[in-house]
Design a protein that fits this description.
The protein is mostly beta strands. It starts with 10 loop residues before the first helix and ends with a strand. The strands form 4 sheets. Strands 2-3-4-8-6-7-10 form a 7-stranded antiparallel sheet. Strands 1-17-14-19-12-11 form a 6-stranded antiparallel sheet, with no helix packed on it. A 5-stranded antiparallel sheet has the order 16-15-18-13-20, with no helix packed on it. The protein has 2 domains: 64-75 and 208-327, Jelly Rolls (Sandwich); 82-207, Jelly Rolls (Sandwich), CATH 2.60.120. The chain is globular and about 55 Å long. It contains 4 helices and 20 strands.
Amino acid sequence: MCVLAGFNDIHTITLYLQKQRSRRQRRLEPTMKSKMCRGHYTYKQTSLLAVFLIVMTASASNGIAQDSGKKSATKVVLASEVQWQQLNPKRGDSSPQAATLWGDRNGTEATGFLVKFVDGFSSPPHIHNVSYRGVVIAGGVHNDDPEAKPMWMPAGSYWTQPAGEVHITASRGVGIAFIEIDKGPYLVLPVEEAADNGERPVNVDPSNIVWLDGTNTSWIGQPQTEIGKGPEIAFLWGNPKDDQISGTLVKLPAGFSGKIHSQAESFQAVVVAGQSTLQLADEAEIKSLSPGSYVTSQGAVSHQISCQTGDSCVIYVRSKGKFKVIPQS
């Protein structure tokens, strides 16, 4: 069986998938993608996927309202502007570097931050006091049980780490990842404090992420007649309904031009891959967003966005409420 990003945190599907196997059994090698994750599902998996798509399409069938009465506020920080500091000062120069994008990892609120590892970095076995989600932006990242064989997750991979579970984190090449917690503080603790909180970790290679286009979800502005030629979205976690917090990946094909329209109470986006440009509503300046750049906004807002590179652009979005990707006519 296969753990599929796109519905691995939807409640009923989570209960089914996460109770079936240990982390090692769930590890997904890229070679498994074509037969296990792109067509040959078990009966239960096919049924669950069909239910998920129906629920997702129905929940977003009315699109995004054009007038919510909410005022928007937007902030853009380029990757070159983020401020790095030691993630774990107790380790001195051997500590990974961290750059907080929003929130406060030393406080109690939800927080998103970047982590940078030097080539060859490998942490000692440890635990965290809170669960986190991660998306690889650069290099190769290994995050698993201390005795597990290395499985290097490339850029675009997604993983989760439950609170209290012993693990190590390593990097091949200069590794950069986006880390997100729902509440803080974010602490590194010794293995003696390990505990099972009932969650199970997930490591997902980019080749195993399930993408939906405009024919499968109304979060995309118009259906595509040819697969892979328009924007796509992958639902990673949470409950993607009105005013509910969820996490998604948005993929824009090379040469894409259009808008991201949000009515979300909060909208936080981090560029994972590709070179995109963003023009804020009511502003003439066009900003160039490289991986690690981020955008935050609140309330009704519509931004002009383009993907300029020869490869597709991938953006991670955490939103409380809906947004919609609208290709240019």
